Amino acid sequence: MIELTLNDQQMLDGERGQAAALAMRILVRSAAVMGAQRLLDIEGAHIDGCLYHGQASLDFVERLVRDGGKVVVPTTLNVGSLDLIHPELFRGDEALRSNGRRLMEAHLALGCESSFTCAPYQLKNRPKLGQQIAWAESNAIVFANSVLGARTNRYGDFIDLCAAITGRAPMSGLHLAENRFGQVLFLVEDFPSDSSSRDISFASLGFLVGQRAKGLIPVIAGLPLDTTEDELKALGAAAAASGAIAMFHAVGITPEARSLDVALGSCEPQSTLHVSAAQLVETRARLNRARAGDAIAAVSVGTPHFSLSEFTNLERLLNEADAPLRSDFYVNTSRFILWQLEGSEIARKLRQRGVEIVTDTCTYITPIMKNTNGLVMTNSGKWAHYAPSKLGVEVAFGSLRECVQSAVLGKVWFDAA
Fold it and tell me: Which of 259, 285, 311 delimits the end of a domain?
């Protein structure tokens, strides 16, 4: 039996409206499945379900709208099925366009913020250390728990929105401090120190960790102390894609891992795995389906969404290349980041170089790319993992520097170093 507060019971009984009653019924049943004895207050939510996957998702959200539902905590939205700012980029059928738009607009009618990003942690107001939230979307979850130190379980479609409408979530899992300690230790040896191209190493490490952690919380020791948020983003996104990781600790870097002892909760790890530079190269090779010199159809980066610093790095690399692009080049980002780019003239300069900036969605989940017949290159472990099955493309996997140089040449180029 779930212990309910007076407010919970009132919502369950329909005293706060039919939308809240439906949301609370779903939460109570979910809490029982999770083994939670009660619910807790949340201070924010991030909703994954605005990406159209079928009629059921649309029916659910439009029912909440008809029943007068409104979110009661600040609520951001994950990517949708189309770029509402650049609708001309969409190359799918009319049914997907119409239903995708309806689903995105229905979430806005519930009071959600029109963020449409898989990287809500890049927005102006982001969760703080210890803050209870209900986030969905795999990379957002792992970033919130690991890099920000906020607390969320892995929420999926429907339950994330129920939490936002009620302001409540099951008190279980990673919401509780005792469940957040590391369980398996990864000792990283000889991690590449060259910050100009080590993005690919972080993505490869994340993919390896996700595969080998076997559902446990990994603790990673040996990363450079100057590791950036973008590099942790790449690591976490790949780990979440390959192994459903919801949280990791990077010793001396992430907020709940001031030391190895703190990260492990003063316990011994269940297992210790050594990771060599050679293993990272091997992991990268498993994601890569290209050889140097192979022709490429396009480059796609920004999965998760590109940050301001990544755009700055991209502009620098294009300036260093000082040559026109010979293949399509797509960058996925949020409208919040694009707004800042427009103010700094970076967006205009990138477009002049032939870069297509995509907002509100991502190139591996919706038909935007002009040419998918052939190799597509990316520096994203998540994109490399999902795109072959989603788009039917072969992937060339390289650093951002390698992606830029390849786009300039029109063929795969790998740094010999």
Answer: 285
